[in-house]
Amino acid sequence: MYEGYWGLREKPFRKTPDPRYLYLNETYEEALERLQFAVDEMDLALLTGEVGSGKTLLTRALVDRLGDRYEVGMILNPRLSPRQFLRAAASELGVAEPRFHTTDLLAQIHDRLLELDAAGRAALLIVDEAHLIPGKPTFEEIRLLTNFQLDDRNLVAIVLVGQPELRERFRHRAYRALTQRIGASFHLVPLGAAETAEYVRHRLAVAGATRTIFTDEAIGGLHAGGGGIPRVVNHLATQALLEGMARGASVVDAAI
User: Fold this and answer.
1) What per-residue confidence (pLDDT) applies to 153?
2) Residue 137 pLDDT greater than 90, yes or no
């Protein structure tokens, strides 16, 4: 569509979490390093940020960094009862036929983790949109999963990813037993003006840009309109590219 007009190989501001487009500023690099450290230590990790701040993209980049040594399970919609959550976790971690009863499920997951460990592999469970988990009982099952360990190491790493209200939820004493097990915690903040400019140029370069497409003033407008939230910046930038093409412009300027 518009990518040919602007001399690009592909759309630079797509909504899909493609790790090639990850912009590693200081904040995102630190977040990724902390997550990787927690996974290497087989710990529980917490990653929070506003809607559209790049949390899912960071987890995809994390999985790419880890390689094949890890059996990675992803729960993308955790609006689940405790039993449903355990069934989903079992399936994601490679249990062929998850059973119905909670005790059976926990036994299956434990056996699977021991099987992976014996094969020289590790298990990672990523729970996206964890703020949607409906109640404390499901979080209690997550805590129990962290009990699966040998004398010298844990058998599963867990990354909880969610919006800021998840962090607020964990401030309650009822969650103290779980939060005490968090080995790494990071909150993503919006991009600054200079970072937004670098972010836009990075995505354009990955998409094949060989010339200036957005003027500095236009990028300033993207930052002001998007508030430094990558997903909003992506949406505005896409609309600007479409509008620029419709006008027959050679660059996207502040007016566009």
Assistant:
1) 86
2) yes
Backbone angles phi, psi at 247, to 5 degrees: -85, -10
Torsions phi, psi of 74, nearest 5?
-125, 125
- For residue 114, count other CB atoms closer than 10 A to its CB: 13
Q: What is the pLDDT of residues 143-155, one digit of tens each?
A: 999 999 887 889 9
Strand boundaries in 62-120, DSSP class E: 70-75
Rounded to 5°, angle at Cα 31 from 90 and 46:
40
CA distance 101 to 98: 9
Structure tokens at 174: 């009822």
Which of 70, 64, 68 lies closest to 22, judged by CA?
A: 64
Instruction: Provide the CA 164 distance to its chain's centre, in angstroms.
Output: 14
Sheet containing 182-187: order of strands: 70-75, 122-127, 156-162, 44-48, 182-187
- Rounded CA-CA distance 191/166 in Å is 21
Rounded-to-integer distance, Cα 18 and Cα 54, Å: 11
Distance CA 106, CA 163 (A): 28
Global confidence as pTM: 0.90
- DSSP states of 145-204 as a string? HTT-B-SS-BSEEEEEEE-HHHHHHTTSGGGHHHHTTEEEEEE-----HHHHHHHHHHHH
The rounded distance, in Å, linking the Cα atoms of 149 and 146 is 7
Asked if residue 123 lies in contact with residue 111, where contact means CB atoms within 8 angstroms, the answer is: no
